[in-house]
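Dear Dr. H.,

I hope your travels went smoothly. While you were away I took the liberty of generating a structure for the chain from your last submission, since the lab meeting agenda had it listed for discussion. I wanted you to have the full record in hand beforehand rather than looking at slides cold. The sequence, exactly as received, is reproduced here:
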Amino acid sequence: MAQDFRLPDLGEGLPEAELVQWLVAVGDTVALNQTIAEVETAKAVVELPSPYAGTVTALHAEAGDIVAVGSVLISFDIGGTDAAPPAPAAESQASAPEVATSAPAGPARSEPNLVGYGAAPTGAGRPQRRARVAGAVAAASDTAVLEAAPHDAIQFADVVERPVERPRSTPPVRRFAKQLGIDLALVEASGASGVITRADVEAYATRVGAATTAAASPEPVEAFEMPVPAVAGDRTTRTPIRGVRRMTADAMVRSAFSAPHVTTFLTVDVTATSELIASLKGDRDLQEHRIGIMAVAAKAVCLALSRHPGLNSRWDDAAGEIVEHHYVNLGIAAATGRGLIVPNIRDAQELTLVELADAIRALAETARAGKTAPADMMGGTFSITNVGVFGVDAGTPIINPGEAGILALGAVRRQPWEHRGEIALRDVMTLALSFDHRLVDGEQGSRFLVDVADVLREPGRAMLLR
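The corresponding predicted structure, in token form, is as follows:
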């Protein structure tokens, strides 16, 4: 029986997604919940599980295509009235354990069980794909035989099989490899993480004699997607507006033209916080937690929000209400190769300084690896962005849609400063708070910023706040 799988709404309310890569091919036998493809939405790269156990009969899109939600993505033969074509005997012996493709007699088949929607049926695992011929061939002579012979006539007994694993890499690297005509399954990762980088692909291209092709490719672009290659004499480069870049642009325009922004600045002496951080780094029990200025600022924000709840609310235009949150989902702006994303730390107000530092570190590592889940970027109540890491003193951050404010941390600089009636060298930084003037008056915003600054100026004051 034939079944079509349509691209589902991935829970983000987005109308489309880009197909990054297929992890199955026509003729493959797949199990229920086996990952069949990677798609990139405006927020994250998402793995799609198979809703059926059966044989792939058709792929309705190619890598790089933009697929609308609800469009047919892949077709299966799941057995029943339409029998699946028999597999070659040699191939069936080399493939993973066979998956049942016909419904048992009696009650009707239940709905497919997807990852995240309950427990899978007993025995529903994730078998390997049919061995890729190109990845299993050990010598050039074998390659010549495979190219010359029809698919059904290939003698798999002479081919050494090895388990096929999906290469770990990022979408830009996959596009770069595709541009060079290189199969990532043949490229070895040089780093301990096992993630294939652009440098790994270039090194492989050089070894196999593709260096001239690699040299003709465009230079790396720090963007969410590889640009369209420039032709000879072209003086411009065009990059499709997709994924995170489009989502960020839409969100910023919506925020700028719906919420009246006000930004206020305050420069503060943070020498005491710098000394605290230095002392914590010297503590052997705390060294691995990497407590920095961002963690202290996050703790200061959580404390200040409890005193100024207007900064932790949202404007519900449809209901004509102001919704005040009694929890803090603290957004942390993270710059990634795909663009700027703002995942949030749930219930940050419940975390200690050490726990906040660990959460920020884990969040940043996940974001840089492109593994941030869409759910982690939804439901934020207030955000922090650290422009100081780029050497910037201050900025006017744009509020994340649905939030009341965002705090920008400037660079910490050692400079002359008045201290106890004298001029001394002190650690100084500038804070910039943007807030929605519909929700927050200038007085409330200013008092909130002063409370955050007081904690950074004298971390011991945190003991007095609640």
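Two observations you may find useful: The CA atoms of residues 132 and 342 lie 38 Å apart. The radius of gyration is 27 Å.

With kind regards,
E. W.
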